[in-house]
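Intended use. Records like the one below are meant for learning the mapping from a protein sequence to its folded structure. Do not use them to infer anything beyond what is encoded.
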Amino acid sequence: MKRLIALFILFCLTTVFLASCGLNSTKKPNPASDFEYKVDGEQITITKYIGKDKTVRIPETIDGKIVTTIGDQAFTMSIITECVLPATIRKIGWCAFAACSNLEKITLNEGLLTIDHGAFAGESKLTEISIPKTVVNIDEQAFASSLGVYASSTLKKVIFEGDAPQNFLAPAPTYYDGNFTIYYHQNAKGFTFPRWNGYPTRVIETEMDVPVFENFEYSENETGGITVLAYLGSAENVIIPQTIQGKNVTEIGVYAFKKNSTMRTVTIPNTVISIQTYAFFSCSALTTVALSNGLTEIGAFAFASCRELSTINLPNTLQTLGDYTFHYCTALKSITIPNSITDWGDCAFAYTALKSVVFEDGLTTIGNSAFWASELEHITLPDSIKVIDADAFSSCHSLKTITLNEGLTILEAGAFENSGLTAITLPSTVISISEKSFASCRNLISVTLNNGLQSIGDYAFENSDALTEIIIPASVTDINESAFKSCTAMQAVKFEGDAPTAYANPAADVMYGPGYGVYYKVYFHRGAQGFTEGEDWHRYGTEIW
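Structure written out for the chain above:
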């Protein structure tokens, strides 16, 4: 009996000892009661830590819903010394861990995409931080010190487990004070040695552990599909597989084919929905791309500087064109823009050889600087177009004519600035000509403005020095500053109706008025309000017509 009691006591002591050592036990996440949070559908955002523990493990789920975000200022000025984030977290919000003066360690797991502005700003005890390979955005001043613009004084190492993020803004390199060094694996893409974005760099003499399938490096993405990370082959005709290890290839990753010099054609399977930033940037031999029929997004610079690219068809599933998508594709001469596109990045087709563009009916907007300095000669817009964004056709020197549609309402700033237009007729639906819309159109000799137009913006026709006459519809109530500045051939501005109620007259500043190469006469109908027969109007001579 005594022997049994002794054995029982020994068992209890051993169990307590093992538990105290952490053996046969796992650290559990903190309970939901330690957090304030908000629910958005099936997702949870942690908004504040209210617990007492100094070591915090964020739970993957709360009440059966997935924890995806550490909200703005959720841990600001917290007492915590360590925090572990689960793989479900996609974003760390603004100043989420700012001014955590005792924070010594933070564990970020794969799945994280964004580290927001000032996420770890302010003094802490962090000496290093490891960035998972899934992170694509690190915002401004993410690691700023309490001074606001400098790197945290304790942080010495920022270790990237994958390729360089698409966006890295933290903190601005011009303010870098030499505290931390960026470490990256020797096969990581996007980094440079000995400095990157103004920061000193060191190469980790090991390669990232990346699986390979038929010359394609890949990883599983957050949707459960496959992202192609890189192509290791040298084939001229590349066919990207539809599946890898039984999972659909859904994404072409950042830098995946960047500066490939042997690939002439590439076929992308219909499973792919996203082509990421710089995916095919500067592929010097690439002539033909077969895009997937399910593609919804092409990222910034994805095909930029592919100077031999001449054949590509955009599918009618495409919604987003990133900034500079086809910038400097100097062999690309024709393209059809599907009506599915709703999100234009800047300069999507700038500096291309495009001579022919077909806009599908149903398209509503043409994006900022979309065709800047392309070789377009004529454009016909479908009736569905409502807005031509800023600089959309700026510096298209070969563009002689354009047929604008009824339904168009707004020409944004510089829409046709410095183009080769010889004549323009605005439909009655256009209500506003924005700043510099037709500035420096030096071949423009005919402008027809239809009734319905309300305002003519600053410098709208500046330097259009072949224009001799313009008729202002009765609907116009606002002509802004220097609308006809330096139109040196202008002889007559004719008003169909009353004088505009707002007329920022060029002559208000002598250098812009008569005597500065602009001597036009103002014509108005007898009985029109705001003019006086036989008297100058805003220092311009007048005449009845």
